[in-house]
From TrEMBL:
Residues 191-325 form the DUF294 domain. The lineage of its organism: Bacteria, Bacillati, Bacillota, Bacilli, Bacillales. Residues 36-152 form the Protein-PII uridylyltransferase N-terminal domain. One of its GO terms (molecular function) is [protein-PII] uridylyltransferase activity. Pfam families: DUF294, DUF294_C. This is Signal transduction protein. InterPro entries: DUF294_put_nucleoTrafse_sb-bd, GlnD_Uridyltrans_N, NT_sf.
């Protein structure tokens, strides 16, 4: 049985290669997949081990890191919402001159390969520390964030939302805090951007038909399935991210954002418990998945009547929450416009 009481020093002595760590991961993962929080602590431990091993390897070849840094994780890892399988979403914020960038890009490449060996799929969108877009100095990150918010395009605002879900796994937390505050300041000065952020995520595929039936994927390898992550979880995730923008909350996890916003009148009382239940439901249904490709999909025909009823209830709750948050965004815009 896995115990997260093991220190990283002990793990370092036990595993000499990424392959050995992957073997241990595969042996332990099902023991922690009954509990969502413990599973995500386990993922953190694996990822941290890979990063420390990568740093050690590059140090032996090129010396110590040339500047202080923060290694950030984003996406489901940033929000502590990973399932049994997860892909990679990460980057670097480093101090000092751009001359240090080559070192951190090489370190990022080593981390990407190490995580891949350990079972973490490479990000299709290349949101990874070996991509210059996500490996930047503090100064360059400031310029990039301003550029994203100046552009106001779908892609640039999506990148901003990816970044706001970040947390520091290893390194200087202040580097990330400063960048999040930069985003909050821009949104406060230009409240119309809040509405644009909302428009970016408000539309979603219809998931429940006129007769109350779940609408599955109609073609391709996932035909007959629903994407539980997109259909059920994302409305909660997106609503709480938008709320975090409104209330300037740095916390990246959806559950943490709920807790930070517990006194906000526009959040429905049972929304947090619904989201926790949905996370646990996904874990219980997908913990036997063999790879990342199908970890978010559920076959509709194999769901019980009770399961389908519960899923539709969560969908309704997520949609209702999103509508309430969008109303707050519009009210914020009107208030600023009247001043």
């Amino acid at each position: 049985m896995y115990s997260n009481k093991n220190s990283f020093k002990e793990i370092d002595e036990e595993f000499k290669t990424y392959e050995e760590l992957r073997k241990w991961r595969d042996e332990q993962i099902h023991g922690v997949s009954k509990n969502h929080e413990e599973l995500n602590r386990f993922h953190d431990e694996i990822m941290t081990k890979v990063i420390l091993s990568s740093i050690k390897k590059l140090e032996s070849e090129q010396g110590k890191p040339p500047a202080r840094f923060a290694f950030i994780v984003m996406g489901s890892a940033g929000r502590c919402e990973q399932s049994i399988w997860s892909d990679q979403d990460h980057g670097f914020i480093f101090e000092g001159e751009e001359a240090a960038k080559d070192y951190f890009l090489k370190l990022g490449e080593e981390i990407v390969e190490g995580l891949s060996i350990c079972g973490y799929e490479k990000c299709e969108g290349k949101v990874m520390a070996n991509n210059p877009l996500w490996c930047r100095s503090c100064k360059q990150w400031k310029e990039q964030i301003d550029q994203w918010l100046d552009e106001e395009s779908w892609e640039s605002l999506r990148n901003t939302s990816i970044f706001i879900d970040a947390r520091v796994l290893i390194g200087n937390k202040e580097f990330l805090q400063n960048k999040k505050q930069q985003i909050f300041t821009r949104l406060e000065d230009q409240p119309h951007l809040l509405k644009r952020m909302g428009d970016n995520v408000e539309s979603s595929k219809k998931s429940v038909g006129w007769f109350g039936q779940l609408i599955p994927v109609q073609k391709g390898k996932n035909k007959g399935m629903i994407n539980f992550k997109e259909t059920v979880l994302f409305p909660f995730v997106n609503a709480l991210r938008l709320s975090a923008y409104l209330e300037q909350i740095e916390e990246p996890s959806t559950i943490g954002r709920f807790q930070a916003l517990e006194n906000c009148s526009f959040l429905e009382n049972d929304a947090l418990s619904a989201f926790k239940e949905a996370l646990q439901f996904r874990l219980s249904k997908t913990k036997v998945s063999q790879n990342y490709d199908n970890v978010h999909f559920l076959e509709v025909e194999r769901l019980s009547k009770q399961d389908k009823t519960q899923i539709k209830k969560w969908i309704d709750q997520g949609d209702s929450l999103m509508k309430q948050v969008m109303k707050q965004l519009k009210n914020k815009g009107r208030e600023e416009g009247s001043q």
